[in-house]
Amino acid sequence: MDSFNLKKFARDAGSALSRVVQRTEEKLGTSERTELDAHFENLAERSDATKLWTEKLLSDTEAVLTPNPGNRVEDFLFDKIDKKRPNRLSNLEYLGLDMIDAGNEFGPGTAYGSALLKVGQCEQKLGTIERDFIASANHSIVAPFRKFLEGEMKTIMRERGLLENKRLDLDACKNRVRKARSMLGTQNKEGPSPEIVLRQAEQDLRVAQAEFDRQAEITKLLLEGIGSSHASHLRCLHEFVESQVRYYAQCHQLMQELQRDLASDRKPSPMLRINSEEVELVPPENSSSNSPPN
C-alpha cells in the first residue's frame, strides 16, 4: 500500500472515529447537534413516507399478481440475474386442463362430460386473460415502483447518509472550536499554542460548514423531486386500474357466454297440467319390462 493510500486510510479512519464519538456524545446529551430547517425536515419526512408506502404497495401488488411466495422469490431471482422468467401454468390453467381430461374420461357425449369440457376450456381462456393482465400490471405499476426504489430513492438515501456524515463532521468541528476557545489564556507546555489550535479549528469549521451546506443543497433538491415521483406514481395507478377494468370486463363477458352455453344444454322436462297445476312427467324406469303383454 503506497503512502497516499495509507494517508487516505488514516484520514478516513479518523473521520469515522470522530463521527462515532460525536454521535455518542449527542445521545448522552453532552454535545449540541446542528438541526436542519423545518422545510428540509418536512421534505425528509415525505421522502421516508414515500419509501415506506411504495415498498408496501409494491409488495402487496406482487402478492396479488403472484400469490405463491415461492414463485415470487423465483421471479425475483430471475430478474436479478437478467434471465427470462419460467413459463409456469396458472392455477386456472391447471384447473382447466384437469376439467378437460375429466370430461374426456366421462365422455363428451354425456351431459356431465360435455359440461366439464366447456368449463375447462373457459378456465383455460380465463388463465390466458389473467396472464395478459399480470403482464400489463407488471408493466404499469410493478416495474416503475421497483425502478423508483432501486434508482431515485436509493440515490436519495445515499445522499442523506452523506449529509448526516457532513453534519457529524460539522458538529465535531464546532466542539473543537469551543474547546480551543476555552483554552485561550492558558499555557500549553507541549504542542502548539492555544491561539494556533483555535485558528486551525476555525479553519476546519469553515471547511466543514461549506461541505455541509453544499451537501444539504444537493439533498434538498433530490427531496424536492419526490413531488414529481408522486405525479409519476399517480399515472401508474391510473394505468393499473385501467388494466383491472379490462381484465374483469373480459372475465365477465367470458363467464356470461359460458353460462348461456351451459343453460342452452339443459332441456326442460315435459309438464302435465292437472287441475291448474303443472306436474313433471318422469318416465318410469324399465318401462318396457313393466308394459302389459299383448
Structural features, described:
This protein has 294 residues and is mainly alpha-helical. The chain is built from 9 helices and 2 strands. Strands 1-2 form a two-stranded antiparallel sheet. Strand 1 (271-274) and strand 2 form a beta hairpin. The longest helix has 40 residues, at 111-150. It starts with a helix and ends with a helix.
Distance between the termini: 119 Å
Radius of gyration: 37 Å
Portion of residues in beta strands equals under 5%
| Class derived from helix and strand content | mainly alpha
The helix tally amounts to: 9
Biased composition (Low complexity): 283-294
Protein name: Endophilin-B1
Domain BAR: 25-271
Keywords: Coiled coil
Question: Which short descriptors sum up this protein?
Answer:
294 residues, mainly alpha, 2 strands, 3% strand
